[in-house]
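Practice problem. Given the sequence and the SMILES for zinc ion, write out the predicted structure.
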Amino acid sequence: MEKTAETKFLQQEQATIASMTRLFCKAKHNTQTSLCEDCQDLLAYAQERVARCLFLPDKPVCARCPVHCYQAPYRERVREVMRYAGPRLMFKDPIAVVRHFRMMMRADSVQVARLRAKMAKK
Ligand SMILES: [Zn+2]
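Answer key:
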């Protein structure tokens, strides 16, 4: 796939992570326009992880990925954000939610399938 599709996908993913973190921080940490320091840190980390994902642009949803690239404390915090913001994103950005479900239903890309098979053998 050409570079532009990858860039576009990456930007969409990063924007979605940002709006989910904003929803979460606003509700849980009572922030208004900007994120609290912790959430800023988490968002920067998550956006960097996506940017470095091995499987772009055909990445699986993170929950189904054979590679767990998040460090433990961030992994927990991101899951907390997703758990809170996921259902609420439906009202804020339904297109992002549809995109996520389509990613979830999609078959593994060749790269992902290969790695998954390799890991299953161990
Ligand atoms: Zn926060």
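Check your answer against the key. The first helix runs from residue 3 to 29.
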